[in-house]
Amino acid sequence: MKTNSLKRSVLAVAVSLGTLAAGQAWAAEQFIPIPSYRVGPYASGGSKYYGGLIDYINLVNAKEGGVGGVKLTYEECETEYKNDRGVECYERLKAKGEAGASMFNFMSTGITYATMDRASQDKIPLVTIGFGRADAKDGSVFPYVFPLITSYWSQASAKISYIGQRLGGMDKLKGKKIVNLYHGSAYGKETMPVLEAFAKKYGFELVNVEVPAPGTEQQSQWLEIRRQQPDFVILRSWGVMTPAAIKAAAKVGFPRDKIVAVWWGGSEEDVIPAGEAAKGYIAGSFASDGVGFPVIQDIQKTLYANGKGNLSDQAAIGTVNYNRGVIGGIMMVEAIRVAQGKFGKKALNGDEVRWGLEHLDLSPARLKALGAANMIPGVKTSCANHEGSGYTRFMQWDGKAWKPASGWIAPDNSVLDPLVKASADKYAKEKGITPRDCSKEK
Amino acid sequence: MQFFIEVMVGGLLAGVMYSLVALGFVLIYKASGVFNFAQGALVLFAALTFVSIEKMGVPFWIALAITLGIMVLMGVAIERIVLRRLVNQPPISLFMATIGLSFFIEGLAQTVWGTEVHGLELGITDEPFDVMGVFISKFDLFAATLSGVLVAGLALFFQKTKLGRALRAVADDHQAALSVGIPLKHIWAIVWAVAGFVALVAGMLWGSRLGVQFALTLVVLKALPVLILGGFTSVPGAIVGGLIVGAGEKLAEVYLGPFIGGGIENWFPYMLALVFLLVRPEGLFGERHIERV
């Protein structure tokens, strides 16, 4: 009798647990794949970026119970910043979740290129904040790629404007000499046509100097720079090339405050290895650093104070890469929120989230409501404009922290738009894509 | 002319830094006849260990001693766990084992010490001083002096000591060395420990320049043409090879680069090494192998 009773009890518990489990499985869940890199050469920045992104997702779940009552779920896949691993992660995660992957954010131009065709076929958007193809701003040709906030080309334009500001006006650029010291890769060469267009417009001399990848040794390039005696050096670096460049600049006595670097050369990981030599160095930025933003403080209070933060080292909170990750999370979650407004509060598929990404409206008021006022510029996307902003700001390393060196600088679209159009049209022709008519998109 | 001298002097000094990495390869090759694919990983591990211990508040020289101890232990462990089982196996088996070791050590370094990038200040500024208009880096001069001392010490060790001769015998033929009573296991443990020490010196100098980060594993790419040029078995060859590669690549980049698009510094040393290979396959100072058929 006792045995039967025990069996019945066990059965009842099992049925209850089964029902509960089934109930949980049926509750709406929005799946976000996280193709992170926490080991390998770029692990330091990758850990912080994806840590920030995951913290924001967890914050939304903890404070709002997800988006519109739909819980956000995620799964990490280690790419090691390698293209083949990235493609593998894409294939592994694209069909996960109730409605498949919402979108991918690889934080890697190489992996983005490697998955672009697949993502378009699978109707899954790629979010490329501050990396990837600049011409993907043209959503009529690239419906599934979103270079949100600002692209490399917009940044190149902002660098010239910033140098103009430093010289006392854009007219002062005439006759000046600017060296473009670039990483010897497709990434490094991407901004050359833009810089050449601006050199023509403003009458400055542009000298392109290549640093063979990975850029550990730059003595000859910096001796050449010393010989050229430029007014400014635009540094288009990546990874170890940045501290090596700063050290080499110090070695030839080139002033660090005359170096204007790409945002991928503008994190703590880039300047700390260069030590004292990095003092005064300038770099671009699309997301402000620091812990002064309410959203960051909310993460600390809601997650880290309760032992639920993603990073073991809390000193990383508020660093450049961490805040970039939080911004990545904000953009992705907002896209889901916007898409829910059209398609309903349910698990959305990639194509539906794509619509959300194409209708983002992160006004200053909305950013303030999210606790991220002035952390990024306002972003408003459309079919014709997948970038949504194009603004870039500059910051200066004082030896201990980044300090603002400029306000948000607008891109010069009179130069950029024709280049974007020409490049997107060329891509459409190569791939046999018929561009969408954006005037018909709602 | 002044600019030419500056480029050449800079190149020669940079070449010494390459030699430092190449030395680690030479040591292992001399003792086992195997190209040690894991040397870059050892450089990373040594530098990361040192800087992490120092960041715990341990004084410089104690941190250095502890790191050296860890590198010696690692050398002994590699012999015990990996190499001991591969005595008398074809060199390709040993080479494959070092590839595995490389991935293991890289992973171990990041697992134990984390993925954070660290700055490393050795107290020697990288600011230049002016010698008749030619800028020379104090740091490069220091690195060159240190490398020179290391090379001289190792050359003496291999040529003049009993242990050095035993190492060379082991490299020639494991079986023969064992048959005349040379303790192969001890020899390998010692040489891996010495390679660990060289990796520590290289890691600290390169880490001071680039920061202690994963990219330190990439500095070995600069050492390969040095080895081909200088010979895989010659300690002085590593230094001469380094000087030729350093000066050659810098001069080529500055004077040849503009005519062929620039950015030639990476492949030029390999091309130079290839030319040397055609003339002297064993390198400038390498041992010529004559086999009876």
UniProtKB/TrEMBL annotation, chain A:
A Pfam family this chain is assigned to: Peripla_BP_6
InterPro entries reported for this sequence: Leu-bd, Peripla_BP_I
Listed A to Z, the keywords are:
Signal
Give the residue range of the signal peptide. 1-27
Annotated SUPFAM superfamilies: Periplasmic binding protein-like I
Keyword check for Signal: yes
Q: Which segments constitute the Leucine-binding protein domain?
A: 32-399
Determine the domain of life of the protein's source: Bacteria
Annotated family: Belongs to the leucine-binding protein family.
Q: What name is this protein filed under? A: Amino acid/amide ABC transporter substrate-binding protein (HAAT family)
Source species: Rivihabitans pingtungensis
TrEMBL record, chain B:
The membrane spanning regions, by residue number, are: 12-29, 34-53, 59-82, 94-113, 133-158, 187-206, 226-247, 254-279
Q: May I have one GO cellular component term?
A: plasma membrane
Task: Give this protein's Gene Ontology molecular function annotations.
Answer: transmembrane transporter activity
Q: Where does this polypeptide localize?
A: Cell membrane
What InterPro entries does the record point to? ABC_transp_permease, BCAA_transport_permease
Q: Which domain of life is it from?
A: Bacteria
Q: Which Pfam families match?
A: BPD_transp_2 (PF02653)
Its keywords, alphabetically, are: Amino-acid transport, Cell membrane, Membrane, Transmembrane, Transmembrane helix, Transport
Task: Specify the protein name.
Answer: Amino acid/amide ABC transporter membrane protein 1 (HAAT family)
* Species whose genome carries this gene: Rivihabitans pingtungensis
